[in-house]
Amino acid sequence: MKIITHAAMALACLLSLYSVSFAQADAGATLQQAQQAGQFTFIVFYKDNSPQTQKMLQVVQQSISDQPQQATLATASMASAQGQALAEKFQVSRAPMPMTVAVAPNGAVTGLFPRQVAKANIDAAIVPPVMMECMKELQAQKLVFVCLTKSEQAAVPAGVRALQLDPMFKDRMALIGLNVQDATEARLMQQLKVDADQVQGPYAALIAPPGVLVGHFSGTSTADQIAAAIHKAGKCCDDPNCKHAGNAQASQSTATRR
Question: Which of residues 92, 109, 125 is at a domain's end?
Fold first, then answer.
């Protein structure tokens, strides 16, 4: 005679409920609705209803439960055509499963967590507005000039304006304003390695894909100086055979050996 404990029955019921949510979920529709509502979407991609999948789902659910206005959960089965299409969209179709993909309201991917995820990962993936915008532009392969200000109106350094006229860069540049006194963007300020006291007049920090800090530029920086910094970093174009990219890799290799 087989004895079923209360704990085992509870687990069986819980798994059953999760299976129903998996079957009924339309991750694409959930994502669209969340973006319209200004919410982050955490999409759990899975191949089967394994304990590992259940653990990931549980962590995501619990992590976002205290911030329902900011985040929502969606699930996507890799066995379905919809799930496969969504995985292709986020380029995770060949990634280890289960996989959680964090998507911001503007469509930027703010986190990729294969096999397992922790609450700290979920919290970190909910990024503030300016950081979210920077991530979106970087994922579009843009050179992002974060124009720093101590007021509501960001001033763009003259050299950055002049660089917008350069055919090599004009279609690859994004200008985003950031008030250095905005405490919600402290994490971005830290990543930009900028102190608020540095900002005296027009000032910009340049980030290149995938998230490389190229440098800081003030009102006295010229377009030629900014272009030289971009070339030195090997971020002037998308051509892997570009001579500047080669030089940048060689410099990094030399620095590593030292």
Answer: 125
